[in-house]
Amino acid sequence: MNMTDRRIREVLIVGGGSAGWMTAAMLAHALKQDCRITLVESEEIGTVGVGEATIPPIRLFNQTLGIDEREFMARTKGSFKLGIEFVGWGREDSRYFHPFGPFGKDFDLVPLHQYWLKARADGETAPLDDHSMAWHMAKAGKFAHPAGDPRSVMSTFDYAYHFDAGLYARFLRDYAEARGVTRIEGKIADVALNGETGFVEGVTLEDGRVLGGELFIDCSGFRGLLIEQALQTGYDDWSHWLPCDRAVAMPCDHPEGDRNPTPYTRSTAREAGWQWRIPLQHRVGNGYVFCSSFLEETRAGELLASRLDGKALADPRALRFTAGRRKLHWNRNVIAVGLASGFLEPLESTSIHLIQANISKILALFPDKDFDPATRDEFNRVAHGEMERIRDFIVLHYKLTQRQDSELWRYVSAMAIPDTLQLKIDHFRRYGRLTARELDLFAPPSWLAVHVGQNNLPVSHDPLLDYRGIDARDWLARLRGTMASEAARLPRHADVLARHCAAAA
Ligand code: FAD
What we know:
By secondary structure, the protein is an alpha+beta fold. 35% of the residues lie in helices and 18% in strands. It is built from 15 helices and 21 strands. Helix 1 (18-30) packs parallel to helix 6 (165-178) and helix 9 (351-364) packs antiparallel against helix 10. The chain binds flavin-adenine dinucleotide. Flavin-adenine dinucleotide is lined by residues 15-20, 40-42, 45-48, 50-54, 165, 187-188, 219-221, 223, 225, 247, 287, 319, 321, 338-340, 346, 349, 351-352, 355.
């Protein structure tokens, strides 16, 4: 047994966007002693400056750091998010809700949605969404925290946040600096590699300062300063499945006379992509994600500006990207986190989650000076699987469209898709059954929402249901009624936010 101390004593984090400061905060929390953590960032280069919607695991991240939700909401101007409303994705006139959490509560061996499918075949018209507590709350503009009592319909949903990602990074910077992280302002001009091992040895700033380290975390954004520019790791380009490669972003004021932020994100399919709407406390974030082969940037900005539901607060800001992932997230002594590791369009709000997922793996597989290749390979295997499963889920939304009104929609509805996704679609189409795969971030209810919402309805229900002898139509009707009356008695989202933030003061 090797008893010598092989601990890493110096970690250098390159970049101070959400990825850099989330990493710095978690490492400061985990490596309580004997390790120097330094973060270098450049104000001149700045950060990507978008990224406002999240999914429920972010709560675990904050809880692990011991962050109080009320303080977090107050500092980041955050709001609560119960899911995403998709408008115009199946057909131009259709809409559905992807809630966090299940549809109702299973009461039998056979899942609830199978009873809904059967009732539907027998003439029932209530949509699947009406069995989601999250949707009842969302459409009424209400919010409450989930109940602990599993018998209550109020326990059948989950939630995440919308927040200002810049303010979140600033909040985590205070957290990390208070726990000993050193921040260095400066622009990296050069990266030194070891001639024998190819490991990164240090970086040189434009003013000549040299920063060393043993483990380097690349949070430098799309440019991938260490992982790509220095180590030339390579990139798997997925734009044949996800052709959107641009976005314009533009915040606006809340609609006049309505200061109650909707407790959900809205994604509206447009001629060459889709538009996001993310309500925060002080403004609404908007953006148009589009494919540059089918729409010009200036025109996208004009279209977005004409489709805001409040007064514009800035000019449109353009961003460019290529869907895909770095061939290795961990290469030699560099681990990429955030945009440096790859990018999937924000349709299901997964980028900040992927930051969190890589940070979790850094802790689960923390190296020592030996940089064991098997540890690195396991990290890359899991990171790749996670991104592929999310990619498939995002591609699902495009592939299932019935729209044929513009070039983008004709392309995506006809395109070949990954085999892993084709299997899932075929499997659901037969009996409406859902099976979670290893590393699937999105659980069966999420897939169900998109399949049904975009009209990929199964040929028949689960054969097992016909052996059960249960007529669930009355039960489903009572469930919908209970959910509606529960939602009606809840407080408005704006009132919950105001109370929450006041309690933080
Ligand atoms: P950046 O914010 O780009 O930070 C890079 C850092 O590296 C900066 O501090 C910069 O100064 C530093 N740096 C770079 N080069 C140097 C150098 N030479 N020297 C010194 N420092 C350097 N995510 C979500 O979860 N939800 C969303 O709704 C969402 N929406 C998005 C919409 C769009 C259009 C885009 C493009 C992204 C969206 N994201 C979203 C992703 C989210 O914005 C990012 O994942 C997140 O902000 C992390 O960015 P980052 O920290 O990796 O990179």
